[in-house]
Design brief:
Shape: globular
Order of helices and strands: HHHHHHHHEEHHHHHHH
CATH architecture: Orthogonal Bundle
Structural class: mainly alpha
Membrane topology: Multi-pass membrane protein
Distance between the termini: 18 Å
Number of domains: 1
Radius of gyration: 21 Å
Function: Part of the binding-protein-dependent transport system for D-xylose. Probably responsible for the translocation of the substrate across the membrane.
InterPro entries: ABC_transp_permease
Strand order of the largest sheet: 1-2
Strand content: under 5%
Main location: membrane
Subcellular location: Cell membrane
Largest sheet: 2 strands, antiparallel
């Protein structure tokens, strides 16, 4: 039986189960339980966490992770990794800023240039992966080091510093800031525009993954690329498209970074790729591909947002946050395997 046929058969089995069994077989169920537990924990031990005004701060931290965790989750479901995702965000912000500042252009020219570059980097990763047959871990690790060096080297040449110059006095900055760095106040809650982008990306990705043919292709190439190719799934286009989606979201995140803070540090983003991957794994994605949830990845990002600020609000030592990341990764991997095996048996 081909991978596509296996997916169809699995869907038929799931549809015939009782509601409780269907809910418990969802990839994101573990992350949802964890989010509730962490929420209740910090509600109990951290008084500032109970302040409604801090909801916007928590959601902002979650959104900056979630905007990248969603496409990274799609890519992992498709059976691949992108270790350059963190520095690609920085590359997007730097490229747009440096181009506009160096040549005195309207900042929207830099924004469009950055979009083309970010998507091209994603396409290159996908092309090189398919061309060489190397694991995506190695391909994108190479891209990671290349971009990290280029970010620092080009920024030093252009500005004589390790950060881009401020562009808030340049043409087009005000309108670009409204698109990428604005915020809205609802009662005591101050919401950044990234929260809106995060929710939209999650809804669109979830719809594509669960309700379209492309979603079936993503699951199929992640489960068994050879079998998927044999039944007509466009494996190459699907994988390249997933890498390009990561590039697009890196551009969107990079534009927020630029227009929110007016400058970009060339060393920013290193290590963020692991946070994106861990959020996806917490959300139900398997490292082997073919299984996962973008909604779960967003819940994983929310867990990070709550934990980062909850530790500070509780007055705990923030050095323990990295320990939390490792523990959550191990627990999520075990839970994901258990849920998948239970789902396959029913």
């Amino acid at each position: 039986m081909s991978t596509v046929e296996e997916l169809a058969a699995r869907d038929d089995r799931v549809a015939g189960r009782p509601l409780a069994a269907r809910v418990l077989s969802r990839p994101e169920v573990g992350s949802l339980v964890a989010a509730v537990v962490i929420f209740l924990l910090f509600m109990a031990v951290a008084e500032p966490f109970r302040n409604v005004a801090n909801v916007g701060t928590i959601l902002y931290g979650a959104s900056t992770i979630g905007m990248m965790a969603v496409p990274v989750a799609l890519l992992m479901i498709g059976g691949e990794f992108d270790l350059s995702a963190g520095v690609a965000v920085t590359t997007a912000g730097l490229s747009g800023s440096l181009l506009a500042w160096n040549f005195g252009l309207n900042v929207w020219v830099g924004v469009l240039f950055s979009l083309v570059l970010a998507v091209a980097i994603g396409a290159f990763n996908g092309w090189l992966l398919l061309r060489t047959g190397l694991p995506s871990f190695l391909v994108t690790l190479g891209t990671f080091f290349v971009l990290q060096g280029v970010n620092l080297g080009v920024t030093r040449i252009a500005t004589g510093n390790v950060a881009s110059a401020g562009i808030n006095d340049m043409d087009g900055f005000a309108s670009a800031h409204a698109v990428f760095g604005s915020e809205v106040t609802i009662g005591p809650i101050n919401l950044k525009i990234t929260v809106l982008y995060w929710v939209l990306l999650t809804l669109i990705a979830a719809y594509v993954l669960l309700r379209t043919r492309i979603g079936n292709w993503i699951f199929a190439v992640g489960g068994d690329a050879g079998a998927a190719r044999a039944v007509g799934v466009p494996v190459r286009a699907t994988k390249v498209g997933l890498f390009m989606a990561v590039g697009f979201c890196a551009w969107l995140s990079g534009m927020h970074l630029l227009f929110q803070f007016n400058t970009v540090q060339s060393g920013e983003g290193v290590g963020k790729e692991f946070i994106f991957i861990i959020a996806a794994v917490i959300g139900g994605c398997l490292l082997t591909g073919g299984y996962g949830s973008v909604v779960g990845a967003s819940i994983g990002a929310l867990i990070f947002g709550m934990t980062q600020l909850g530790i500070n609000y509780a007055g705990w030592n923030p050095d323990w946050f990295r320990t939390f990341l490792g523990v959550m990764l191990l627990l999520a991997t075990i839970v994901n395997l258990y849920v998948k095996r239970r789902a396959d048996l029913r």
